[in-house]
Amino acid sequence: MRIISDSVNINFECFNSFEQKRDTILMLHGFTGSLDDWREIHRLLNPNFNYIGIDLVGHGKSDSPVNIDKYSPQALSKQINDILNNLSIKQAIIFGYSMGGRAALSFAINHPNKIRGLILEGTTAGIESEKIRSERIKIDEELADYIESHNIEEFVELWMNKEIFNTQRRFSNEKLKKIRKKKALNSKIGLANSLREFGTGRMGYFGNKLNQINCPVLLITGELDTKFTKINSMLKKKFPNAKHKIIKNAGHNTHIEEPMKFVKVVNEFLKNY
């Protein structure tokens, strides 16, 4: 299914039969991903929810506009809100991985009355230090330039070889090849503009607003992802109602590295709904 949000076509899909009376979980993928990243995982989750995957702007089958304003935190929040309104959903649980988690946080801050809960995997609330944020913006700009000056396969290879994904080297060559192939389906313009307007540096810092989010929050990080585990241990203290679960033997992307452990933690959280 597709909606037009401020002249941008946004693709989304209900993974199971949609029932208006049930709670809905919106699933937001990470940078270079798509809604297909959740297609297998949702089958293992509590079946008493509607599961809707969204291709964030610049990814999957959604548009990749040249206009960089369409990738801003405000634009992403509007796109998510327009999907909820299109389906007459008053409140939803937002489930986001990495960049998708940042989009979920942005939405929760902009539309607190639309949130029933948050599940944030490998997520940050941005960078508090202006100096470090400026350095990150420069890094993301350089990476965006690389995307534009190389073919998509070269960029995916560079991205997959980042230290944060080292724990995925446990996968077979066949599985890694499938992951790279899916990522390479994305648009160069979409990926570059996502970095330039919604990279970790450019999105701003949300940490001082987390006390406004009163719904239950589940933070998930991998034990081997020491950077994000440390970040989330501090984030937990900023929310009024948050739990932080650490997945053993997993790195940044816990749902692909240790799916059964990941699912167990999420289903335990969903028992409260």
What's this model, at a glance?
This protein has 273 residues and is of the alpha/beta class.
- For the residues shown, what is the average pLDDT? 96
What's the CATH first level?
Answer: Alpha Beta
Mass-distribution shape? globular
Can you say what the CATH homologous superfamily is?
Alpha/Beta hydrolase fold, catalytic domain
Query: pLDDT below 50 for ≥5 consecutive residues: which ranges?
Result: none
Largest sheet: number of strands, sense, barrel closure: 8 strands, mixed
Number of helices, where a helix is a run of at least 4 consecutive DSSP H or I residues: 9
Give helix % range: 25-40%
Cα-based radius of gyration, to the nearest Å? 17 Å
C-alpha end-to-end distance:
27 Å
Counted up, domains total 1
Strand numbers in spatial order across the main sheet: 1-2-4-3-5-6-7-8
CATH-level-2 architecture: 3-Layer(aba) Sandwich
Description:
The mean pLDDT is 96. The chain has an eight-stranded mixed sheet with strand order 1-2-4-3-5-6-7-8, sandwiched between helices. The longest helix has 20 residues, at 130-149. The chain has a single domain, classed as Alpha/Beta hydrolase fold, catalytic domain (Rossmann fold, 3-Layer(aba) Sandwich), CATH 3.40.50. Helix 1 (73-86) crosses helix 2 and helix 3 packs antiparallel against helix 6. It has helices at 73-86, 99-110, 130-149, 152-160, 173-183, 188-198, 226-235, 254-257, 259-270, and strands spanning 2-5, 8-14, 24-28, 50-54, 92-97, 115-121, 217-222, 242-247. It starts with a strand and ends with a helix. The protein is of the alpha/beta class and 273 residues long.
